Amino acid sequence: FEYDDPRKRKMEEWLSRLRLFQRGIITLFFFSLAFDGVSPRAAPKKKAHHFEYDDPVPFWANKVGPAANPSETYEYYSLPYCPPSSGSKHHHSSLSQDLVGDHKQDVRYDAHFKVNMNYVPLCEVELSRDDVKKFRKAIERDYYWELLYDENLPINGDVGIAIHEPRSGEEVRSYHLYKHINFLFLYNNDQVIFANASADASKIIDVTEDESVSFTFSYSATWLETDTPFKDRMTLYRDRSRPEMEIHWLSIINSCVLVLLLTGFLAIILMRVLKSDYTRYNIKEEDDEDDYGWKLIHGDVFRFPPQKNLFTAFVGLGAQCLAIFFALLTLSLFNIFYPNSGGSIYVAAIVLYALTTVLGGFVSARLFRQMEGEKWAWNVILSATLFTGPCFLVFSYANTVAIAYKATAAVPIESILLILVILLLVAFPLNVIGGIAGKRSAGPFEAPCRTKKITREIPSIPIYRALPAQMIMAGFLPFSAIYIELFYVFSAVWGGSSYQLFYILFLVAIILVVVTACITVALTYFQLSMEDHRWWWSSFLNGGSTGIFIYGYSIFYYIYRSDMSGFLQASFYFTYMAVLCYFFFVMLGTVGFYSSLFFIKKIYQGLHVE
User: What pTM, to 2 d.p., does this model score?
Assistant: First the structure.
């Protein structure tokens, strides 16, 4: 006879409903992501992106901003362009578009499918003195505008041009506004393949002086046929990038060969030194008093580190970051992230973070349990907040600055709530599930040597072998393997260029991980040889020190390699680069720790100690 406990039955029913609710949330989450980027206006009754002659094609205004500052963008009608007679209505934006500051509004331009137009008056405008000042300031800061055609084809153009003219022995600068735009469209059968625009330099308006002016904005449209299929239409934008983006094979090969040679020499030297150590230790096996080096600390080398709750949480987060990093690179190899789709990679990163929290919770809780940790629930919470906490602070600051500047980079509240729902109802439950699985699967920590009760005294260490010096050495070699590719990646993210050589990036990422593991193992060996058993945190910090070098390079790039300026752009650049470098710090720190742990277990397994 089994007693039917009503409280237990209610608890089981509640847990069952909770699981059903969580499954429903996850289903809705992926359903919404599957339709990310679909707008009501872009869904006509017939098949999307298919048109017949003279059919209207969706045409929107998006944003304006200085070309040198990718994060500083404003609404298209923040400049006194002529809005539609019905008003500048805002249209639905997807999560990916919100994250990159896209802000779709109606526009007066009307280019029907395959209809050529020579000269079409757009609107007559009378600019006041304040309007002239706005345009002049925009031209002075090299503003561009962006339109969207057929849902997601970007069309970019300059607001105007600044001309330097010598007058009376002095150079005078005048500012001219473009008033006529020539649109070029490419089509294949019944689909739009490409859209571009160029300004007519013969039709300009002088806005140098603070005087009101009247003129007519106009445009023309030309349609040409192409053989490019619709599925490859976004690759056409890749060809508009600077040619040196694709011609850097020699530099990459030179860097890779150099780093591989250095790593190989380091590994050979380390193996020879280890062989010599084993020979010496076996000869003096009966006389431990004359021994020195890493053998003497066999009773302390596996002593668990201080702050093991924080340490294991960092390691779990690093394993999660490593999975996210290579998952994004793998997706990029399959051309998931096409040019001018910056928002898609952000959405993919959020989805991957939510899904991989189960890995972070598992690794963190399992290692914490192996280290005889007791309050595993706090460990799971810590692993869930070590990255989201700093990200939330950075995002709150950057978004507040964007709101203060009335920039389109400010993420709307609807998208913020959606991300919070993903984190709370998908990421955190998966993190807890991973933590429970890690706790239950954790066995005792397998160490080849027993840990003594009394901690061995650590001898004094020269300053050039202290942890800061180790971090400099540990970060420099991996950074030297990637710094050339960093320039191209930075140019694509912050310089407006296009980057599509993801197979090279994947190769460089593998080299980065291998070099980080090798240099961390070498420094760990040197530390143990000095009878310093505090290798746990040192291996993590040494491995992650490359992230500090990357942030230092980001400062160099901002000052000497880019034209970015202004408080808004600097706020976005330095805060988000800090988050990215923190990501690499934790990821490579985990690589350094696990490679050192594997190395230490191997060398002490071959050592005969009592």
Answer: 0.87
